[in-house]
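Hey, can you fold this one?
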Amino acid sequence: MGTENLSPVKSSERQVILDALRGFAILGICMANYPEFSLYTFQSEAAVAAMPTAEADRILRFLLYMFVDGKFYTIFSLLFGIGFSIIMTNAARKGKSGLRIFFRRMLVLTAIGFLHLMFIWSGDILVLYALLGMLLPLFRHVSDRGLLCAAAFFLLFPVLIDGAAEASGVWLSEPAVRRQWYYCGLYGITEKNFGYWLRDADSYAQVFQFLVQGAWVRVQEFVDGNRYFKVFGLFLLGFYIGRNQMYATLENRVRLLKAVSIYGFLFGLPLSVLYAWSCMNGHPFGGAAHTIIYTASVYPLGLAYVCGICLLYIRWKEGRLWRLLAAPGRMALTNYIAQSVIGMFLFYGIGLGWGAGVGLVQTELVVLAVCLFQALFSRLWLSAFRFGPLEWVWRMLTYGGWFRLRNVRQALQD
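Sure. Predicted structure:
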């Protein structure tokens, strides 16, 4: 089956609300990720307590657990599932299946994610998204009710896994932990210098050594957090939303949007307080109970964010805020990778070396500056070009052809 008649969605066909939600998610993901780039996450309790902003940092850390942690990858995962539905719909409209294009798209994303994981930042999520995304076509003929049931199963299943692990004392991540410490021993990374290694690195070779062991840490995080089940459940929910084109008929969904928003905040906010307290105190109720709290707080609040933003969009469609959010959302892949490169430059020893010396408050101020810069840069870039740089490369490798990068208007002016 050929791909010659298939092409990516045109700029004129894009849904502003989806790009705005993607831009909003990019902001939240940066807020969640930069405490690791600044090495704040890796500091000992004594080092954290000695920082000038220690008290404010502790309050902000609680608020980040409450309002940010898990909520923004929830949004991003939903959007990924919606994107799959758009690819399938676009292909069906042209009499194609779209599967070959989708799998090529996922293979290219896997390669981009792997390069990001191994050479820039160990906290990559793209590889997981791409590999799990390849399973979505298995559900393309499942009924709407079946999709919702499957999504609920994958979102709730981690509770059973953590309960079984806690009861048996068997942890599936142990092989990954052993590999991580093998590489730590090989390179001389210890618990004592772990939090300072990247700040003290005076060559990329030392950064790469940390990234190698960090890749195994990432595997451990995915396994311990059952992230693959959670992400895939959100993919399916997003696919359901996209297949029914809810994003394109928001005015007809006001009652549903209000209900999800109200109940999401009503249940999600107080439970997010409990979730933040559990995180700050080492999961005192146990791993399975913490997973229950996570499930009951993160997903409702994440969905409330989405629905709340959609309601605001319905009311103020012409607001400048949407253009400001949509621009970085249209270049989400470029901005996601760029955040990592900027983080390396700001906080690692091969750059400015700010890491391990700044508190959480200072870190999040840097986040705001980075995201504002990206929003302005994205608007400027898209005034002259059709795609973000990485989005352009991704599309060409996916569709196997050349796509004009410059806008027609800009090309004519030149």
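The chain has a mean pLDDT of 93. Let me know if you want another pass with a different chain boundary.
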